[in-house]
Amino acid sequence: MYTDNGMGNNIDKFPPDLKIGSFSNSPPWIVKLDNLPWRSDVEALRRAVYLQVPGLIRRRYIPPGARVIKVSVQLAKAIGGWYLIDRRKLKKQRKLNKRSSRRALSRRIKNAFQALGPTYIKLGQVISSGEGLFPEELVSEFSLLRDQVPAESFETVRTTVEEELGKPLNEIFKYFEPTPLAAASIAQVHAAGLISGEDVVVKVQRPQIAEQVKKDLAAMSWVAPLLAGHIAVAALANPSAIIELFAQTVVEELDFRLEADNMLEIAKVLAATKQRIMLVPRPHPELVTQKVLVMERLEGFNWSDAEGMKVAGIDTELVIRAGMTTFLEGAMFYGIFHGDLHGGNLFVQTDGRVAMMDFGITARLDEKKRLAFLKLLIGTITNDVVSRIEALKDFGAIPYEIDNRQVIKDLKLDQPVADPTQMSGEELTKEMRDLMKALLGYGAKMPKELMLFLKDLLFLDGAIATLAPDIDLLDEITNLAIYLMQNYSEQIAKDTGVDLTHVKIDIEQIKAAVGIPSNTDKLSYRDLKERRETVQHTLEETPISIVKEIITEKPDN
């Protein structure tokens, strides 16, 4: 595996800050951790941000006025338009089915979020990167919000930058492109060049966005409990829990000093693990404030341009391996990982290195949750069901008081997993209903860190389809397990008490655990996609009366 970017033992010949972080080999400046004024009180800032979340989402007795009314009106228009117009139109055209109906409703909700402004656009963007966690049609529609956020005027940008940096624009920048490279809900980024000659990217926060977010969180928190309980399947990620998770992520994004610190922390992990195929732009030593972030400019292929990468001789399978490995290492051994991976935040340089961008959402784990991730991994490798359940309890996903034996029985974890492609629609629906009832009965929920982890995992899973569709997933699972054994066996033994040097990787056991037939010798992503499409088609053909059981049936209490 390409890990050290050709450094080997010659690191002294490279820029000195590569000893502390995975950065580019041609630095616009050298990062010195003891000479970053904006970083001096960053931990206190992070604690203060975290402590304000409960107050922001506390439900008031009196609704927060006009904002609740506006939100309610927009959502009512969306749902009403779907029910009274779209469904009738589809029915008249004889095109009414579950997929077309969901697509029409998703489009209406997306338009409502867009009309409600930056906070709701941001919520939509978070949902859009949750492929596999949310309906396909909702993800598809909400992904359009990434490219449909109007930019602030250049005069507004100029005012913000000058106020934050304390100088006229022309005293800091030789040039500053008026048209942004990208405009998102919280901020937009511009290409620029410093007076000293370095090419940079400048991230500028939208004015008044902090106050708008706080008002919107108050409105969301008041409305959310009114929605709870009406759709039983939503209880795992109930509306109030979603608002809490969203609040925890979005408030951290409102201070770019925290994001710049996240950049340095991720870069340090990449250097420590020698995964230098992944790199991070250097934040400027001085030009970082709450609302402005100046960083090194990096360029490359768009993440989706697999053909361009291959023409340039880039090993796209290696890119995927590096992404997956660094993601798992960061979570399980260092307690930190990029929490918002998607195609817009990654691009591949001509030398095959992957530049990561936008570190506003970065998952930081306390020791208990880091060990929970590690327990999940080791429990999967060793097929230790109890260990996996205990890990979920440590996350807070399942209450501690639930008996492990009952969980194993209810979720059928002591039984072979049936091949879903060989099941009927009724059988698949029953499995889903039974699983949902059991989880709801436990009071299960999705903690923030686990949600971000699964979201990233699903993104990387989907990226395989573009960059490495023929990769043998069974081989990759085996090789990843061997890599972790070779590099982390001592730490794993210390943290979990499991000595992996005496554990044999049993691929047959792994196949059985996920319902893959034992006679499957190779499983490419193309094969996996075909299996998923078979399952999806089976569910699509299931009578609607049976599917309704999942939506309407309540857990036994």
Q: Care to give the gist of this entry?
A:
The protein has 557 residues and is α+β, with helices and mostly antiparallel strands. The chain has helices at 42-56, 65-92, 98-116, 118-128, 136-142, 154-165, 209-227, 239-253, 256-272, 306-311, 316-334, 367-382, 385-395, 404-410, 425-442, 448-467, 473-496, 507-513, 525-540, 544-552, and strands at 173-176, 182-183, 187-194, 199-205, 278-279, 283-288, 292-296, 301-302, 336-338, 346-348, 354-356, 362-364.
Question: Can you walk through the features of this model?
Answer:
The structure is a single chain. Among the domains are: 50-147 and 210-253, no CATH class; 398-444 and 524-557, no CATH class. The chain is 53% helix and 9% strand. It contains 20 helices and 12 strands. It has helices at 42-56, 65-92, 98-116, 118-128, 136-142, 154-165, 209-227, 239-253, 256-272, 306-311, 316-334, 367-382, 385-395, 404-410, 425-442, 448-467, 473-496, 507-513, 525-540, 544-552; strands at residues 173-176, 182-183, 187-194, 199-205, 278-279, 283-288, 292-296, 301-302, 336-338, 346-348, 354-356, 362-364. Residues 230-237 and 544-548 have low confidence and may be disordered.
End-to-end Cα distance, whole Å, is 51 Å
Overall geometry: globular
Radius of gyration: 24 Å
Enumerate how many helices there are, as a single number.
20
Mean pLDDT: 83
pLDDT < 50 stretches? 230-237, 544-548
Offer a few descriptive terms.
557 residues; 6-stranded antiparallel beta sheet; 12 strands; 53% helix; 9% strand; globular
